[in-house]
Specification:
Elements (H helix, E strand, L loop, with lengths): L2 E5 L2 E3 L5 E8 L7 E7 L6 E6 L6 E3 L7 E6 L4 E6 L8 E8 L15 E2 L3 E5 L2
Parallel strand pairs: 2-11
Antiparallel strand pairs: 1-3, 3-8, 4-5, 4-9, 5-6, 7-8, 9-10, 9-11
């Protein structure tokens, strides 16, 4: 059974940094396209950043470009989202999700992912 567990959220001051982790169990992340999404209070879930199954392609929402970096460590079966220069508008529950498996480098980033984690809360406030 595919399981994803996010961690690393918390309270941070504006301008600070956090690194979110998404650990997979029950399957190997190597062959999956992966995405980070977020949902702010009272708002719809939106895509933040995605990475292709082979790692050859990444994409970022305009609101986080230059501040967030997605990466994957297949050896640790974990995906990361490094978040720098955080702003109050980054406050949200952050979810990771996967779609696959793909046996060639495939990019996919949409709301119909195969499996979702339960999320980790990021609060940016002074």
């Amino acid at each position: 059974q595919l399981q994803l567990v996010e961690s690393g959220g918390g309270l941070v001051q504006p301008g600070g940094s956090l690194r979110l982790s998404c650990a997979a169990s029950g399957f190997t992340l190597d062959y999956y396209a992966i995405g980070w999404f977020r949902q702010a209070p009272g708002k719809e879930r939106k895509g933040v950043s995605c990475i292709s199954s082979g790692g050859g392609r990444t994409n970022y929402a305009n609101s986080v470009k230059g501040r967030f970096t997605i990466s994957r460590d297949n050896a640790k079966n974990t995906v990361y989202l490094q978040m720098n220069s955080l702003k109050p508008e980054d406050t949200a529950v952050y979810y990771c999700a996967v779609r696959g498996p793909y046996y060639t480098d495939t990019y996919y980033c949409d709301y119909d992912m195969n499996s979702w984690g339960k999320g980790t809360l990021v609060t940016v406030s002074s």
